[in-house]
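Board work, copied verbatim: Acyl-CoA dehydrogenase
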Amino acid sequence: MDLSYTDEEKAFRDEVRGFLAEKLPKEISDKIRAGRNIGKDGYEWWHATLNARGWLNFNWPKEFGGAEWNAIQRHIFEEECAAAYAPRIVPFGLSMLGPVLQKFGSKAQQDYFLPRILNGEHWWCQGYSEPGAGSDLASLKTRAVRDGDHYVVNGQKTWTTLAQYANWIFCLVRTDPEAKAQEGISFLLIDMNTPGIEVRPIVLLDGTPEVNEVFFDDVRVPVENLVGEENKGWTYAKYLLTHERTNIAGVGFSQAGLDMVKRIARIETANGRPLIENPHFAARLARVEIDLMAMATTNMRIISKAAAGQAPGVESSMLKVKGTIIRQEINDLARRAVGPYAMPFASEAVAGDNDPIGPDYAAPVAAQYFNNRKLSIFGGSNEIQRGIIAKVKMGG
Ligand SMILES: Cc1cc2nc3c(=O)[nH]c(=O)nc-3n(C[C@H](O)[C@H](O)[C@H](O)COP(=O)(O)OP(=O)(O)OC[C@H]3O[C@@H](n4cnc5c(N)ncnc54)[C@H](O)[C@@H]3O)c2cc1C
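↓ predict structure ↓
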């Protein structure tokens, strides 16, 4: 196994750096660095910028016009974007639905939906979770009943990220209530402008309405919006989840966060000395840095295996657990480093352009700390991941 970069990969890194230096304005990267919201327009602008370069669909196969980067190229790109404080790519259309349509969608669905994911005409959200169906997703109850050439959908989804921006939602719905849990589920594509859909915001701990409840009341969906076969949706849902868990380790985000904590700890003081010299703080910082270095190496090992054609298995669960623990620890260190400036937390300082209270670096610290509690819950909670690891590694 070779963990060093080839000349070609180094040249690719330079190309990404050059692109970011040219195309990412300081005004946007400053907002990301300060943890401020760039809003729908900001995400759409970034998608369009990447699309113009042919880099938005980097994980799509060439037959669908994608760049088809290998695992190492994707890793380099994600690392450089995090280091440059580029906006994140909203994954729902590109990394989740796109691959499902490419594998299981009809030709008509591929021809209609894939280009609209890329050109930004469609903003997708993910309608999987329901009240009572999260970790135990197969117990979902949202019902779709066939009525002529339509399905009639009734029920509720929850925790739907950025549904307030979306005009389409991909949903898991129950089409056969008599079948065994996993067998009566179908995968439907639903236009959010159809009568009977209501989106209600859920305000998170950081004060932002990042997630929503979505209600369906006799929503009529054309049968041609069924992906694959009726009652086979679980197969497609699971395939999608393997794509949801890409870049799960978040090494680039952690590295950028750690650099920020060090910057803060060099400026803030404890007992008249820079905080970074405080033995307790320095020890915690060192511990998380060592953990991050170890995880980055593990990540490279797994990427190197993937580049050699071996699909990651239980390793992605290990990266999810470790990666989220590290990011949450970094958020906690930042919160401690800014001390009382983390207290006057005002979501307006993050969502709007208001001046923060205290130094500029203090503004997002509390919001990020609170917001990133989500990391150990979504994409399969850490407890569920530990269960998977135990089962595979210990045969539990
Ligand atoms: C910020 C955020 C954004 C999200 N975005 C979306 C989205 O866009 N679309 C979408 O469909 N969903 C989304 N989700 C939902 C997410 O997938 C679920 O929250 C997650 O699967 C956990 O389900 P739950 O919240 O129902 O908790 P539950 O499944 O009820 O779990 C509650 C607790 O019990 C633990 N637990 C449950 N079962 C077990 C077990 N077998 N062994 C050990 N411990 C267990 C869990 O780890 C957790 O700590 C989002 C969630 C969050 C927080």
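The pocket of flavin-adenine dinucleotide is lined by residues 125-129, 134-135, 159-161, 211, 374, 377-378, 381, 383-384, 387 (CB under 6 Å).
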